[in-house]
Amino acid sequence: IKDMSDEEHKAQTAAEEEVTLFDKIVQGKIPADVIYEDDLAMAFRDINPVAKTHFLVIPKDRQGLTMFSKAEDRHKELLGHLMVTAAKVAEQEGLGEGYRIVINNGKFGCQAVYHLHIHVIGGEQLGWPPTGLKKS
């Protein structure tokens, strides 16, 4: 049995919740370093950054999007808005040289909070393949 990272352990034990950590951030009940907000989305710095710049973009109202695989046709506008927001905030954060967009989905995807969120990671040269991938 291999040792799990803290994030892998969180993902293995995470469960869908009525009110998520991110809902509490949107409600102002938990502090966050918010770098962008509009009517539909919020962006804030990740508390455990994996690169020089690492922020999350979330929908303020999940609309049932606990994870990416729950996306339906009715979510097209919101999903598009989140991606445009990610690009806008990446530019605001000076990531013109490039960045990575990551959406973790489910426990094998290392999703620890069941509130759809987009990781935007950059500010330095990133490697390929992304860390955490195992060669077969």
UniProtKB/TrEMBL annotation:
InterPro entries: Histidine_triad_CS, Histidine_triad_HIT, HIT-like, HIT-like_sf. Gene3D superfamilies: HIT-like. The active site is at H117. SUPFAM superfamilies: HIT-like. GO terms for molecular function: catalytic activity. Residues 21-131 form the HIT domain. A motif (Histidine triad motif) lies at residues 115-119. PANTHER family: HISTIDINE TRIAD HIT PROTEIN. This is HIT domain-containing protein.
